[in-house]
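Trying the structure run again after the queue cleared.
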Amino acid sequence: MPTEPQIKLMSYQKRTILFKILFGIFIFALPFFIFYTTGYRLSFEEEGATFVTTGGIYVTTDVLEVEVYLNEERVERPRLFRSAYYIQNIEEGQHRVVVQGAGLQTWVKELPVDAHIVTEVAAFNMPESPIIRPIAEYVNDVGEQVFYSVDPEADLFPQATTTVPYVTTSTRSTAILSKNSEFAYVKDLFASSTEATTNASLINRIDRELQRFEIATTTIAGNASTTVIYPYIERGDMHIVDRGTDLYAVWTGQENNIPHYFCVTAQASSSVVVRYGEHVARQVEAQRLSLTDTLLIDGGRFCRNEIKLDRKRQDVLYYAFFPNSSDLVVLQLEDGLYVTEIDDRAWQNTQQIYSGTDFDVYVTDDAIYIMEDDRYFELITEIPEN
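Done. Tokens:
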């Protein structure tokens, strides 16, 4: 009969020798590991080998199928997570990050990279062409949305791609059709929004008149102070404050939880201009000199508590937080609907998601709805998977 192989234990003396060898290798390699993890790299570009300091960029994306470029060179490294890239071994200085994909608008940001520091940034990519889901009052027996139109052959949504089938009919008979419960829900959203807007407009007009009177009285008396309260919306500790013609993102939470893009790492205004842009330097300096706005100074970081949103020199007709995000804002401007990031380092990326001058918008926590020509639809912000 075959005998089972016998495994002998290593002797105590051999185990001791092996342990000492492995421990010695660990002690010898430990300084190199520490140097590597803190950003030091061995460079052979100069005469002889020298140590250089490097940093990294951590890029999160809201779309999986995208390509990430650093200084026009595609990042081939695999993702650290499904929705994030970690780019390391980056030399100190300004570096351009580009995130793009088929059918998506391109996101670009130029950021400074410092030695031993990982710079965080969040990219977003909206579809190049609008993608919508029509919502009709009635559906037929196969679940298709049914819209009334004088011309049944007309394209009701010429500038968009639809994600669900719909049909048009020139008859108003609904005997063989079924009511669409979602239509009633969306219609009520816009009805309540219109009523609230009307009431708010009346209240705002009265408030403005009272404020003008109050300011005039204060100016004459010279011994009273007035606090003006501006309308705002909030998501967690992030507020979007409406100050007449401009919108500001204001952080109201704890200083240790402030989003990274409110902070810059520099000591002089001239350095902030080069690294982050003149508009950031102006805001930092204004808050540093302000008696009311606090500029958080944490070591080499300056953290503002508010950021002005780019409205592209147009009037803001409507604004809301982007669904499921406190870092992106939906803006309805004079020529269409946009998504803008609050992060203004270098610039604010702003991407148009629907064009037009005569439509209404309502944004919920999960969706963006549009009413145009008495028709309702949901605006899809991700390209559907095939």
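The mean pLDDT is 82. Worth checking whether this holds up in the mutant runs.
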